[in-house]
Amino acid sequence: MSYSVAIPENLNEELLKHLVRRDGQEDLCFALWNPSVGKSRTTALIQTVLLPRNGERRVHGNASFLPNYFERAVEEALRENCGIAFLHSHPGPGWQGMSDDDIAAELGLAPKVFAVTELPLVGLTLGSDGTWSARFWEKQSPTQYVRQWCENVRSVGLQLRTSFADILIPPPPEIEEQIRTVSAWGYKKQAELSRLKVGVVGAGSVGSMVAEALARTGIARITLIDTDMTTIQRWKIYLSKRIKYTA
């Protein structure tokens, strides 16, 4: 099972404004999420941001929340039948790992959150450039919670912005076939595009051209959807030489 997080674009902008502070200090907040569970991936769908009110958190270089803030998050989660996400920012750019203090804070929250919601705590960290990292704290035993890193965090709206965990989905190597493609928008954008998973509905005359164009562009994971298994088998042979595919 893999894990991910999806955030509506408007909520992502709200979180950026709150968590990336002009004074360079860290900040935090809670949010509510609903699970979207597939055959091989669980996604936390962020649906509501609970920004702190006066007297609910302290900012002191780092940031800490007061009990009344967590209690409000619990009340809202029970009312909406949702899970709880804990979000905080770091002052540096890029994908963020976790300090010992970060781990201790989320491990302390995980049992409490699961006890009231029966869903794992979802932790998110925001870099100063808008890059997210995320994890699920899955219950393994009555006293043990294990961190499961998310492969990506997606901001979904008029634009799709995706933060990838390089430790799980490393950026692709630069290859000669993509030199001209990469030169159009740079290696960073190419690394983002190539790690997206794209579904193609129909693998006939049009769909096959789309699938081939995606493969040539460098998209590494393509799902082909077609009732004609002969067509699917033909494209399996072709695509298996270039990319990872599912059909």
Give your account of this protein's structure.
It is a single chain. With 247 residues, this protein is of the alpha/beta class. It folds into 2 domains: 2-164, Cytidine Deaminase, domain 2 (3-Layer(aba) Sandwich), CATH 3.40.140.10; 176-246, 3-Layer(aba) Sandwich (Rossmann fold). Helices cover 34% and strands 35% of the residues. It contains 6 helices and 14 strands. The strands form 3 sheets. A 9-stranded mixed sheet has the order 9-8-7-6-2-3-1-10-11. Strands 12-13-14 form a 3-stranded parallel sheet, with helices on one face. Strand 2 and strand 3 (41-50) form a beta hairpin. The radius of gyration is 20 Å and the shape is globular. The two termini are 18 Å apart.
- Average pLDDT, rounded to a whole number, is 90
CATH architecture of the largest domain: 3-Layer(aba) Sandwich
Spatial order of the strands in the main sheet? 9-8-7-6-2-3-1-10-11
- Number of helical elements: 6
CATH class of the largest domain, anyone?
Alpha Beta
Order of SSEs:
EHEEEEHEHEEEEEHEHEHE
Cα shape: globular
Number of domain modules: 2
Reported by name, the CATH topology of the largest domain is: Cytidine Deaminase, domain 2
Q: Please identify which CATH superfamily of the largest domain we are dealing with.
A: Cytidine Deaminase, domain 2
Q: What is the terminal separation in angstroms?
A: 18 Å
Estimate the strand proportion.
35-45%
Helicity, as a percent range: 25-40%
- Major β-sheet, in short? 9 strands, mixed
Mind telling me the C-alpha Rg? 20 Å
Q: Which class do the helix and strand fractions yield?
A: alpha/beta
Based on DSSP secondary structure assignment, what is the total number of beta strands?
14
Uncertain regions spanning at least 5 consecutive residues: none
